């Protein structure tokens, strides 16, 4: 597989697209005032402690206080941490206390960011864990001999220090000196953060995880990346400088694209990105996926659509499910969906086909840099998996709630709105209000009101069709014998006859 990274900047927004064999796999945006917070380290001030939730709210200098669970608090050395394991929040922190925390989850909706005291400092080849004694090797490094070699190097590196290390995928095949230099640079960075933390007044930012450009060079460059392309000369210089510092072996793959057409258009990025905002995603075979979001989880439904297959029913269903699994794995990355995900594949009777489908999905999920966990198939035949929530999904970044349906995806039927208007008219009559009135509604609703007829006992029904009205709304106003306003038409007068 060959990968291409495209980076563009327009009106203060930096956009990054990752293409795999020409197909859009990931898309990121960053603009001034909306920078990523996850990974940033702060000196925070505990504002209040919530024993009932075993958590605390911490002020880190943002508009909303951040949330810190008791289980994410690390105080003192390893011995003290072990003594306080499982302790209640009121034993761990107190209001007004200053603590060093890291953002592990972006704010969203009415919630502030989530924090942890378990700090992680990622480098190009390793991740430094200053608060825990631990050695880990990336699960994407499969060769057992290489894993043992890297583990031996890593264990030697953490022996003199109090921290731990995770060896990243990019370290596969790296020399001991390269890994040591990377780890020691991170250790020095942590020392600088600690020094700064001793001389600031909370809340204060102690360390920024870097811009989208910095993170792209640090986290995305690998042997599979054929080129990193941009048409912006300033971005090109910034990329070259960052790559020369962090990954000099890849500096030659940074390309200043001088073609006339916009780079994202030439690689069909925006056209491919359209699927990330659609509820229904069509598959090449003629089947389709349906994505539905709720507060608790994301649901993906697989449908045969126009696909009829050429062989037996079981083979047709299995082939479509495998195609769907590949596209679902891609859409999870492209949409940046996190949390619980439930997939309703088309039912398969053969257990070996169900296991083979899970293998296909599992293999596709391995390409995802964000941690995923394929739980398996439930008793109802649904596939469960989780994907770590780091950022807001792309639809929340780039969409707002519909003013008509308030995010439900539904608006009242014309008949329902018409009947609600007639119910209000009946309430007026029951209250003894004899004031002449007119029902004002959108044309389709106004027509439905006329079709339903006047409430029982009403002398006349006056309806005004106003093209400026929302189809879910109506209003009753005192009737005035005058010309209707612009854009409105009186459909029925006081005699019940159309003018």
UniProtKB/TrEMBL annotation:
Keywords: Hydrolase, Magnesium, Metal-binding, RNA-binding. SUPFAM superfamilies: Nucleic acid-binding proteins (SSF50249). Residues 490-499 have a biased composition (Basic and acidic residues). It holds the Pfam family RNase_E_G. One of its GO terms (biological process) is rRNA processing. It comes from Candidatus Pullichristensenella stercorigallinarum. NCBIfam families: RNaseEG. GO terms for molecular function: hydrolase activity; metal ion binding; RNA binding; RNA nuclease activity. This is Rne/Rng family ribonuclease. It comes from the Bacteria. CDD domains: S1_RNase_E. Residues 39-118 form the S1 motif domain. Its cofactor is Mg(2+). Residues 477-499 are annotated as: Disordered. GO terms for cellular component: cytoplasm.
């Amino acid at each position: 597989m060959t990968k291409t990274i495209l980076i563009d900047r327009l009106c203060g927004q930096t956009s990054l697209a990752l293409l795999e064999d020409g197909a859009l796999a990931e898309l990121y945006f960053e603009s001034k005032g909306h920078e990523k917070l996850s990974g940033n380290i702060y000196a925070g001030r505990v504002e209040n402690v919530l024993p009932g939730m075993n958590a605390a709210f911490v002020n880190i200098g943002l508009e909303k206080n951040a949330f810190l669970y008791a289980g994410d608090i690390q105080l003192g050395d390893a011995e003290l941490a072990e003594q306080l394991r499982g302790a209640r929040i009121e034993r761990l922190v107190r209001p007004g206390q200053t603590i060093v925390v890291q953002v592990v989850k972006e704010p969203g909706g009415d919630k502030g960011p989530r924090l942890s005291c378990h700090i992680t400092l990622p480098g190009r080849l390793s991740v430094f864990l200053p608060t825990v004694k631990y050695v880990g090797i990336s699960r994407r490094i499969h060769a057992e001999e290489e894993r043992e070699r890297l583990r031996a190097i890593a264990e030697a590196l953490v022996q003199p220090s109090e921290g731990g290390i995770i060896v990243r995928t990019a370290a596969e095949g790296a020399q001991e000196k390269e890994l040591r230099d990377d780890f020691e640079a991170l250790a020095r960075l942590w020392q600088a953060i600690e020094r700064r933390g001793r001389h600031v007044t909370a809340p204060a930012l102690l360390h920024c995880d870097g811009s989208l450009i910095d993170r792209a060079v640090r986290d995305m460059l690998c042997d599979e990346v054929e080129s990193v392309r941009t048409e912006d000369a300033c971005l090109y210089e910034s990329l070259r400088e960052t790559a020369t510092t962090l990954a000099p072996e890849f500096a030659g793959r940074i390309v200043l694209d001088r073609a006339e057409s916009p780079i994202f258009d030439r690689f069909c990025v925006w056209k491919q990105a359209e699927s990330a905002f659609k509820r229904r995603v069509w598959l090449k075979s003629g089947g389709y996926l349906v994505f539905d979001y709720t507060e608790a989880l994301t649901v993906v439904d697989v449908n045969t659509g126009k696909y009829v297959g050429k062989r037996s029913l079981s083979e047709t269903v299995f082939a479509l499910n495998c195609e769907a699994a590949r596209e679902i794995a891609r859409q999870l990355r492209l949409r940046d969906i996190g949390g619980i995900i439930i997939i309703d594949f088309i039912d398969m009777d053969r257990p070996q086909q169900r296991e083979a489908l899970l293998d296909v999905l599992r293999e596709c999920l391995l390409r995802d840099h964000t941690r995923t966990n394929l739980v398996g198939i439930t008793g109802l035949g649904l596939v469960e998996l989780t994907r770590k929530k780091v950022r807001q999904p792309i639809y929340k970044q780039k969409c707002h709630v519909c003013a008509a349906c308030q995010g439900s995806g539904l608006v009242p039927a014309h008949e329902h709105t018409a009947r609600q208007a007639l119910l209000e008219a009946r309430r007026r009559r029951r209250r003894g209000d004899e004031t002449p009135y007119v029902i004002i509604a959108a044309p389709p609703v106004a027509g439905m009101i006329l079709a339903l007829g006047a409430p029982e006992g009403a002398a006349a029904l006056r309806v005004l069709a106003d093209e400026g009205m929302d189809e879910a709304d109506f209003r009753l106003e005192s009737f005035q014998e005058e010309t209707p306003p612009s854009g409105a038409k009186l459909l029925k007068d006081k005699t019940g006859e159309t003018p």
